Amino acid sequence: MIVAVVHQKGGVGKSTTAAALAQAAAYAGRRVLAVDVNPQPTMTMILPPPPAPPRSTIYDVLPQTEKGTAVPITRATVTLPDAVELVTGDRRLQLIRSWPGSARRLKQALSPVAGDYDIIVIDCPPQGGEMQTAGIYAADKIIVPTTAEPAAVAELAPTMNAIRTANPAADVAIVATMVDARATITKIMLARISEAAAGYGAAFLGNVRRAAAVQEAQALRRSLYEYAPHSKPAADYLRILEAITEEKKVG
Q1: Model's pTM, two decimal places?
Q2: How much is the pLDDT for 81?
């Protein structure tokens, strides 16, 4: 199963969600590959560091011309201390070339190893572009994290449009992140998120509760499931993982 984590707006917990889902999968004993296709490789920077620098990155895995060659994805894969396997991001993705059909190259790069993992998690960049389209196209399921804020909820419409354009068959679910349910505005916006999900034909998989443990684990570059396995966000991400890995569609 390949899961892309997508939102057009930054600051909604997208990379945090991608990293936490990968860590939840490893914690649950599943073999997981995390793939960072964000030119600002946030997921790479918040996951635990690899024991040694990778020989290659996601940039090297993707052909740079229509008839070009690239390194196998296995050469760019490193195993992290939390048992997550990672293909690291690369700022050179800002310069990556595109051509008709080039968005397929990520799916093609993943194809030889897709059967080796229980789940592959792709962290896509915000604000559209080649790499976001490639991540969406490669995925079986897509998670759209959003904060319970008007600006983030407003960006659900262009996000869903990008998803339906690149991969209309994808199974899509929305998750509310950094939730403090005590605030009145949060309750209002959560109702709007649930309504929006229904309108888009997507599942609403509920909330990830706010807790300092998430930022603390990232600052220390430790797995959330090592640093605070009993925290509320750790429980929430495990629940979301179970929902998206069920055999039935999440929507």
Answers
A1: 0.94
A2: 95
